[in-house]
Amino acid sequence: MKDFDHLMSVWQAQPKKEHLSADDVLKQVKKGIRSITSKLYWAIVAMVATIVAAFILMFFMAFKSPVTTYGILIILITMALYLYMIIRHYHILSKHDVTQNPSEYLEALKEYQRNRSKVVGWFYYVYILLLSAGLGLYFIEVLENASLTFKLTTYGSTLIWFLFTTFYIRPRMLKNEEEKLNLMIDRLVRLQGQFEK
Questions:
Q1: Is Transmembrane helix tagged as a keyword (predicted)?
Q2: Domain count along the chain
């Protein structure tokens, strides 16, 4: 009997799960999605500007070697693929309204998260490889008359930048976005669980 009383007191002392306010959760989710879509929007704007600049460089600069043009073309195609991917992600996140059908929105958000981790994982490495190849071909002519020290500095700093973004910035950025998505999904799941009881 003593054990039962002790068990009862421990059980009753457990903190009760707080009930989430539907309005608060929906506001937080909308704010989180707005933050992600805003970053995607500015990434789209920056990528369009970069593609336009590369296009102008490719067609209005006179290069002696076709290798340089191929390098810029590889860079353009790579950036266009990346632009397509971020436009697609922006469209997926912004086309649903969480207040209209939260359970449908929750499923769309889960699908987006699964899809994004798959695509971003392998695509980033393809992106970096193609970008590196394009820049390597571009630098052949551009650095043709440069000193060996300048060439090594340029290639070395480009390599260091790619390694830095790949192994330092990218994981932190993806982890941050993943945490935001997990938090939003968790809140929507908890909210959905409240209504199902």
A1: yes
A2: 1
